Amino acid sequence: MSGLLSTRRGFCCRVSISLAFFLAAPAVLPVVAQQIQRHIETESLDLSPRFLGSDSCATSTCHGNVVGQGPLWNHSLSVYAANDPHATAGRILSREVSPLSESIVVLLDPNAKTSTEAYTQVLQKHCISCHGTVTPDQCDSSNPLKPSVLYEGVSCEACHGGASQWIDDHLNESWIGPSRFLAATGMRDTESIVGRAKNCVRCHVGSRSEDGLVRDMNHDLIAAGHPALRFDLLIYNENLPHHWSSDSEVEENFSASAIRLRKVSRATNLSAAAALSSARASDHLRDVSIPWPELSDYDCFACHQSLTMSRYDVPLMNQVKTMLRVSDGLPIWNTWHSTDQLNLRDSISYLEILSPHRSDPRKVASIGNRIAARYQKLASKIATEAAPDTKTELNRLLALLQKNELQDWHAAAVNLLTLDAIIRDLPDQQRTVLAADVAQLESMLRFDSGDRSSKPPKHSPGGFDPQEYRARVIDILTSRLNPATKAP
Questions:
Q1: Which of 104, 251, 292, 360 is the Cys-Cys partner for 284 at CB 3.0 to 4.6 Å?
Q2: DSSP bridge partners of 298
Q3: What positions does the domain Cytochrome c7-like occupy (predicted)?
């Protein structure tokens, strides 16, 4: 009986069982009543949301019905479990399932090749905070790692929040509106653009403090073979199997403008990246074993260049600099997130502080938080604005391309994301016409697209020519779409 009472799943169900027990066994009524009273008092004092596990959602009358039977909410867990990559995110950490995961873990700790204990400790230190639904205690290598952590993966409560405080309330018809997402309830906001973006970037950009967990895709992990994180809410949201109603008012508002959605996503990403940089700096000041400067904060291609003589090129003194560049010899800070958003040349102090050769962790900790606050505020502002006009956005994009050269791969990739969002908001006929053009532009950005240049531009992968890409985009915009501003 104490086991039943110690688990908060369906208070009404527990009360019914308890009343039946009282009627059947009146002799033990005082003892059970005391247990219930202690349980209620304990729960009333513990206001922190707790994970209950996906089993609490899995009955056929809740979210675990057979796919295709009943309304979508009734089989949403079944859709997720069958098709969503989050469901298997924990299992792919197993060496039996993924040779890549094993390779990454062994590179992080060679002892993990033969030691199960060492393998598990790497998972707890580096992996399960994103690949599982866990508490800080479960990431502590002094505690055993339960197999259920890997089996459940990124389950319902990882995104929706620990359910202990809201599992009963969310059954009520009155459980609607943004008040559900107040901190006291423990339910996370998955409906608004900003809420969903902030929910995702905890793992897909990273954090060293959210939920009391360290989720840090640092240079060690990337060097070991984990893909660098290049999150885009629009693409991720589209690619996931929808276990939610796509034609609901909430989703219609969410997807009303691809341009707005991507702008909010990129501002949120930059905010999270800046906060992560700040946290890395602060944590290094407390513990010097945490690397500093953290190389994953900077542009990969600035260092990872071919060193063959045929590729050698002295930087030109009169080369046009981007808004982010200090010199060709220095990596750019958080290039993927800051490109087309952060103009460091407007603030020389920011430019100096964020340059790796002058990297002072105290200053970075401060400036990172300021950038994070600035861009989170911007994301919230954009989310409340009317959907941008596609013609205006196209003209703006073309004018920028005609005025400024694209300096590197990151600038071209962000340009494609911007163009893609505009095209998504165009009428169907225009979108269809441009589909092949967008596919061609995307192929130009792929790393395996061939070596078209004997001297690749700095800050780009070998074989990529940003000016070739730029010329192609200008041609598309002027010949296909015919915006008001014509190319010269």
A1: 292
A2: 333
A3: 118-204
Q: What is the Cα gyration radius of the chain? A: 26
- Read out DSSP for 25-77? -GGGHHHHHHHHHHHHHHHHH--S-----GGGG-STTTT-SPTTSSSGGGGHH
Which amino acid makes up residue 165? Q
Give the pLDDT of residue 22: 33
The domains located in the chain, with CATH, are 2-46 (no CATH), 55-249 (1.10.1130), 389-488 (no CATH)
On the CB side of 442, CA atoms within 13 Å amount to 10
- Burial tier of 261 (Cβ tally within 10 Å: 0-12, 13-18, 19+): buried
Residues in the chain: 488
Among 351, 347, 346, 361, which Cα is nearest to 327's? 351
Report the pLDDT averaged over residues 79-105: 94
Torsion, CA 34, CA 35, CA 40, CA 45, rounded to 10: 100
Which residues have C-beta within 8 Å of that of residue 22, sequence separation ≥ 6? 29, 32
Tokens of 38: 């202690």
pLDDT digits (tens, 9 = 90+) for 172-206: 988 888 889 988 899 999 999 999 999 999 999 99
Task: Report pTM.
Answer: 0.84
What is the C-alpha separation between 150 and 134, in angstroms, rounded?
10
Contact 449, 413 (CB under 8 A): no
Q: Higher pLDDT residue, 297 or 310?
A: 297
* Token pair 């929040």: residue: 161
